[in-house]
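Q: Hi! First time doing this. I have a protein sequence and I read that you can turn it into a structure. Is that right? Here it is:
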Amino acid sequence: MPDNGKLKLGLYWAASCGGCEIAIVELREKILIVDQVADILFWPVAMDFKYKDVEAMPDGHIDVCLFNGAIRTSENEHLAHLMRRKSKVLVAFGSCAYEGGIPGLANLFDRQSIFERAYLESPSTDNPQGILPQTSYQAPEGEIHIPKFYNTVKTLGQVEDVDYYLPGCPPQPHQIWAVIEAILSGNLPPKGSVVGANDKTVCDECKHTREEKRIKKFYRIHEIIPDTTQCLFDQGLICAGPATRGGCGALCPQVNMPCRGCYGPAPHQIDQGAALLSAVSSVVAADTEEEAARIVGEIADPIGTFYRFSLPSSLLHRVRLG
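A: Yes, that's right. Below is the predicted 3D structure, encoded as structure tokens:
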């Protein structure tokens, strides 16, 4: 730490929506305490920092870096390597850095098909010359360089050595604060641990009553008005609670929305999507194989349902290229 005794803190936003940055602000009055105990050395979304500022720092100069977002481009990967080198502790902050998150669903496609859809085929696109993004372009003002767009979205841990994982989309403010307090006190768990969560599932935190009913039909959330006391799974809504680590306080089920799975796999699970699929299959009430296929076949967007946040970190990882 510097002579003033403050924690040296860095924050970076890679491939994500920005919600993790808002979650920091959601600390509300506690952010004033953060200002008292920490010097923010890098936070480009909020302050005028340049990459060259970090590059000029000695290695290990930053005490803790909260790195949110998946690795989608060469710029994301460059910053992952840079922040790892300059930080004593690197935290995968939020679902995208931890598991790949929503951006990771792009692993169902490749760079070329994404570019064709976004720049050539979408109904609102006006691109008669069929121009696609290039990594360099000679403009009248000089050569312009943009990052390379990768075929595959990766988690932070798949490109760099991560010390801790803080889940959530975004992480909840009380959990962020608990982690900050743990860092300040030096009371951190072993390297590689999931912090800002607990060792239960979302179902353990949920107040709805589970009766483990058998299901003949699954519904999307707009198709029914759920009972406010009965387990959403029992009502035919696919809730990721059985396969998801607790710590958020079951916020979505509290307002009768199924858990989306953003806190990552429950403890001792290898593949969150497979665990959720197992939970779904265990409640299907089918007398024949054909009926089971019909019930399961009515689930809209199976990959997006079972692997909404975790495709890059799953056993599947992505569709096969080529």
